[in-house]
Amino acid sequence: MNTQQQETLQQLLQQYRDLPGGLLPLLHAVQDALGHIPADAIPAIARAMNQSQAEVHGVIGFYHDFRTSPPAAHSLRLCRAEACQSMGSEALAAQLRAQLGVDDHGHTADGQLELRPVYCLGACACAPALQLDGQLHARVTPEKLSALLASCSKEAKC
Ligand code: FES
Questions:
Q1: pLDDT (tens digit, 9 = 90+) per residue, 83-108?
Q2: Are 116 and 62 a contacting pair, CB within 8 Å?
């Protein structure tokens, strides 16, 4: 971590260390502030929350939304729950594997796009759905997915 990140972490540790059950909110706050939970922050987090490093790693590993590496430029969350599965999300996942060589929890070789499965985006009636850089896209077809991916490669931000 750089100096600014360390200062941010120290502020968050002060804010959450005495909060009962504060580990989860602290981890969310660290990720919100730094974009991820740096590996070298974990010892300080464990000390502040009176937990072992293994316990902190366990919590981070249990929740798929936590990340220990910086995010890619673009984040694609493809819904894999039942309604979206029945409307073609598995075909979209196969398209992503074929077109970009990226699978669940993976990222493209150039680090520009990461793929995360999600289990319902609240858009079941408009399945299949995905979220690209936080924006919901519904009734996604293979053609619409290709267009979204093309927009990512043309622009710095989708
Ligand atoms: S199942 Fe995909 S949005 Fe609900």
A1: 999 999 999 999 999 998 888 888 88
A2: no
